[in-house]
Each structure stands twice: as structure tokens, then as C-alpha cells.
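Regression test case RT-17, inverse folding.

Input:
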């Protein structure tokens, strides 16, 4: 079943509509959706390595725009939608400490957490809730999200076919590692906040 799912994603990645789906997932992940865009970015870069840089740029742009929605949720709708989303991901009791940390380490929080598997939506919503400077939020989001997505795309572009072969031969292992990193990111976020 895993192999069929992988092949389906690879086939989807080769379709003309794939960039739109990638942009939608990148946008949604930055504000409310739990699945990171890497699940589409990786197979798309493997399927069409010459477009890896375009895909990374698209991910970055859509993620930053989605981050603005997350910021707006935190700033304007925290008492309703923002609090619901934060509690849904298990961070409700940690918001005061996180907001206080923004006063001293706001730049570093955005830069570091944007690179990690910690859900970026927590950073975007909290940035809005803490009324972090919007200009710096956008600039730092572009840097951190761009770095993350261009790093993934660059590795896949330069390694190319051997990466695809490695993933296809060890699909179960790669999937398990990805799942562990994703779950580890959620757990780390709970304990770091």
C-alpha cells in the first residue's frame, strides 16, 4: 500500500496542476493545516528536478502568505479561532511563556522554529497574538522558510536520481523517519514552549 501511495504522489507531482496543490498545502500548513509541504515538495523535486528551484520558491511564497493568515488569526481572532487552533495542537497552556519569550527573542524564535519540524502555524499565530512587528515577521519568515525549502530542493537537485533510488528502495524506512521527525517536532514544541 505504501508503494502505491508513493507512486500516486509521484504521478501527481508530474501533473500540470501539481504546483497549485503544492502552493495550497504550503499556504495552509503555515496557518492551520497539520501536514507539511515536504510531502509534496520532495516527490515533485524528484519527479522534475529541473523545476526544484521553482518549487522551493513557490513553497516559500505560499508559506509566507499563509503565515500572514496565521498572524491575522493570532492578532484578530485569537480568542476564537486562534485559541482553538493552539489548543488543538496542545499548546494552549504555554502561550503566556511563549509570548513573554517573544519580548526578548522574537527574531530567533521565528528563525529557528521556521527551520525545524515544529509546526510553523504555532509561530505564525503566536506572532500575531504577541503583536510582533509585522515587517520583521515577514522578513524573517521569508528567510527561514526560504532557507528550509531551498535546502530541501537543492539537496534533491544535486543528488537527483540517487536520492530517488534511495527513497524507492527504502520507502518504509524513509517514511518511518519522516513520521518520527514530524511527531518529534510536535513533541519538541510542547516541551519547548
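Golden output:
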Amino acid at each position: 500500500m505504501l508503494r502505491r501511495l508513493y507512486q500516486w504522489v509521484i504521478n501527481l507531482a508530474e501533473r500540470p496542476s501539481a504546483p497549485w496543490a503544492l502552493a495550497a498545502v504550503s499556504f495552509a500548513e503555515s496557518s492551520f493545516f497539520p501536514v507539511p509541504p515536504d510531502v509534496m515538495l520532495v516527490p515533485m523535486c524528484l519527479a522534475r528536478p529541473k523545476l526544484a528551484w521553482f518549487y522551493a520558491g513557490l513553497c516559500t511564497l505560499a508559506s509566507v502568505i499563509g503565515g500572514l493568515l496565521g498572524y491575522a488569526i493570532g492578532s484578530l481572532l485569537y480568542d476564537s479561532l486562534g485559541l482553538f487552533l493552539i489548543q488543538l495542537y496542545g499548546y494552549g497552556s504555554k502561550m503566556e511563556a511563549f509570548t513573554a519569550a517573544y519580548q526578548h527573542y522574537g527574531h530567533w524564535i521565528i528563525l529557528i522554529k521556521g527551520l525545524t519540524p515544529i509546526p510553523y502555524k504555532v509561530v505564525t499565530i503566536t506572532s500575531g497574538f504577541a503583536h510582533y512587528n509585522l515587517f520583521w515577521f515577514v522578513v524573517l519568515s521569508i528567510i527561514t522558510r526560504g532557507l528550509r525549502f531551498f535546502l530541501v530542493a537543492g539537496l534533491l537537485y544535486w543528488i537527483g536520481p540517487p536520492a530517488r533510488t534511495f527513497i524507492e528502495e527504502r520507502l518504509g524506512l524513509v517514511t518511518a523517519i519522516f513520521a518520527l521527525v514530524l511527531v518529534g517536532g510536535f513533541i519538541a514544541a510542547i516541551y519547548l514552549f
